[in-house]
């Protein structure tokens, strides 16, 4: 009996050892993003997972009659990239609407609007996004608080309401028609947590910041609600398809979506499962407070069978953006010394939401830009963590852009993830000192190195469509803290190393979504999501990182046609 059992065990072991791979890549430089940051030669894939990784000599032993072989010829392979904070449907919508990212003048923007109107029907809403007054190279003429007036925009669009959202997403400029439909006049007062920008004479500039944006966006939502449901869903589906393709272009195999409604979440889940969306998605639920509290009862939505979708997080906003004077600061803005920014959600409401998330065992992800905003979020997180007696809730502060130095050690102490976007640093660099002054900018702004030195866990992303989805430009910003257009360097002592930048788009982001056992590195039994690049991101020059191109994308070991 013993001999029979030994014979059976040897046969079973031999079968296991000789299990043949579906796909083998060999003769390459495969960056694993594992704990040792190993670069290996070959990898075997079986049933959508990594079967083995090591030397070409060893891995090729797993070749069978039906194994597909790819001779990499020294090409660089790395884990599929994970966008750590973006807005998926808004990315697609921005590529359909007027994309104002990169515009250099108000004149250029009004010209783009005029062109869009030429093919629109009277009464159609015209939308665009991506302008930033601090990045224009040509004067817009008369301004107030650095913003242009709406007059020129209104003159070219008398029959169409126009809404142009600021690059940050925390302000907009509307034309006269949009304000008229919204019932806005010079006597309209600003709501709590927002500002209607009027000049010293009470004239409307057309600019609305933070919560005041809802005055314009409410009639816009009514317009979309009036569209037949089937047409509206088709528009959303088109946005999803376009966003998925744009992500795959840049090797993004997983996307962490930072704010979708429950209706959108259910759509995204179905589109992931039907492969309308080819990327994997982790989504944060977002809505206004009362709806958010109610909809949180539907969470968590666990990872589905094919590992393409999960939703176990909630998103909230404590403050706004620095560019639109919405970041909530401990001390006034240097260039608006009677203004501290905006508190968008009362701390009592955030505390109630935190309690709900703790009860439901879901992640709480809170937008925090200013040092006051981050300080208050950390205080509320600390209360929940004390109650749970655990610092592994992995709650996140989205952006964590401007910090009081005394708050930096608290991220590690509380196990709070600093979900930051490196590209924001170099994109915002031209106006950060103007807003904060040199001392706050140098020691508290985009303080990646300081946070890491304190033991904090970080994530990285682009916040698209606030910035371009391009992850390689974001990595370049992380490595150099330099702008690509003019080489401007923003306090380089806070930059990341090359390997830290690569980890920030792979295993760090997987950890931030509680998915590090599933993906984020190329290791045995993990999902076979990986990309082949046109250059070695470890060995190439800093500048070459920014212009890297993706040659092939594999998800679950299958090559994706892009």
Describe the structure.
Helix content is 35%, strand content 21%. An 8-stranded parallel β-sheet has the order 8-17-18-19-20-21-22-23. A 6-stranded mixed β-sheet has the order 3-2-7-24-25-26, with no helix packed on it. A 6-stranded mixed β-sheet has the order 9-10-13-14-16-15, with helices on both faces. Strand 21 (396-399), helix 13 (408-414) and strand 22 form a beta-alpha-beta unit. The protein has 3 domains: 2-74, Urease, subunit C, domain 1 (Roll); 82-86 and 231-519, TIM Barrel (Alpha-Beta Barrel), CATH 3.20.20; 105-225, Diaminopimelate Epimerase, Chain A, domain 1, CATH 3.10.310. With 562 residues, the protein is of the alpha/beta class. The termini are far apart. Helix 11 packs parallel to helix 12, helix 14 runs antiparallel to helix 15 and helix 17 (471-480) runs antiparallel to helix 18 (498-504). It contains 20 helices and 26 strands. The radius of gyration is 25 Å and the shape is globular. The longest helix is centred in the middle third of the chain and has 21 residues, at 229-249.
